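Page 37, top half.
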Amino acid sequence: MFRPLEVDVQGLLPDADALVVGWVESPDLICGELELATVRSLTLDASARWEAGEEARRLRLPQAESGEGLVIAYSERGGEVLQLGCVAVRYEDAERPELTLVLSTP
């Protein structure tokens, strides 16, 4: 098991009403292949959610079984995906169990 991962998401649009951060361990998935229209259909191995009105936006993903995967974040407004961010992570390369992820701009 690998440590929980703290994810600080930057660039969230002010009118977003939710933010989802997820962990995917699929070796076949590549960040560049993700799209706004299909990201919600992914099966996430772990996830955390922030909703407008909550103070903290730094989300914590639980312990991971695998040391390699993708951290995916997307913002929503009314159930529609507005922004997307993704980064490949290897725990053995990380100095600390923290990362900053920047969302795309529409």
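Page 37, bottom half:
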Amino acid sequence: MASKSAGKIMKHNHRKVAILKTGLSIGDADAVMIVPFNSTKPSGSTPFVLAKTWVRNYWMPLDQVSVVKAAEVVYPCTSPARLPAGLLKTVLKEVDKVSQ
């Protein structure tokens, strides 16, 4: 199983996601906080963070942040491999604003 760390881009249910936090739990299972990593801009007034990567631009809709079992998140074998540290901090700040 691939190692999970904050900032890594992986897949959950065949969709790219960014791991925001690790070390969480759901019952007895390890869990991670994820956000979709979409190549299309969200419609309407959906709050999002734009990630400009060397591959393309990606949008992370903040209303779709979720906590899932770590075993459900798998290695994607696609680029980019991870979020830059500064961008990860920005996303976490925005998630905190939206969740309040």
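Margin note: The helical segments are 85-99.
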